[in-house]
Input
Amino acid sequence: MPPWPRLPVKAAYLALNNPKRRNALSLLVLRDLRDQLHRFNTSPADGKLRILPAFQPAILDKLEAAVAGTDAQAAAEYGWLLEAPKWREHREDLPNVLVLRSEGPVFSAGHDLGELRQLPHDEVKETFAICAEVMSLIRRSPAPVVGVVHGLATAAGCQLALATDLPIAKAETQFRLPGASLGLPCTSPSTSASRRLGNAFTYRMLSTAEPIRADQLPVGSIDVVVDEEALEKRVKTIVDQMANQTAAQPQAIGKWAYWTQVGLQGGEGGDGYEEAVAWTGRMMALHARGEDAREGMDSFFEKRKPEWKT
Output
């Protein structure tokens, strides 16, 4: 592990360490990232991988049934995400926040094209399949992932940076989807980019293959700082906040709920707003019954710092 700044006890590094190849996402590197994400999200109680559910609105029915005690199967599947005691059991000694970063002047040059040219087709398919799995594991990680994007993020490296929950980059850092210039459009990387940057902006990047500075990305899409010192300061602030000042279980279920409601579409051709308001109202009622929510409300009225249960 490079000499990166020390993290709080409840945080851990998700390390992308291939500096001699510009942190290219080789098959071995992708397998290692997958293994790290599995390790950080595998229950010490039963050895099962515990990640957020698929971002499907109907799952809320199962969550409500689980807390009401009317669906034993749902309680077994989702109880760890809903109940503070079960959360502590299944995430004991696991981090509440992950920090993705790499070593060297390039965050990630994307897939290792030299390797892809030489791999048999089955391993090429495996490379892209594991890459998709890694991106999904980041998105569904109950521990939010902070992305420290200190240098060029291109192709699948751009996808990886923008797949994190909270990417932070220096203003001069370049993001690029260069596939069009190689006859290999960055179709897969455009998934993360479009969800963070918007469709029109991402298509511009996809079709022109031009590098875009962090401070030229849509305002608010990522956290932009001026220099290296500001980058480390901002990372420390966010990680300390999420690791030490926020409750972990509400953070996880809140992440799931946010991205689920974003995907709600109007069933009769509308924009989905009414469906989202109704759905999130039910979700807030589920939030409110949690131990940390009750502790937060009690501490507010008692004018003291909360003592989180997770």
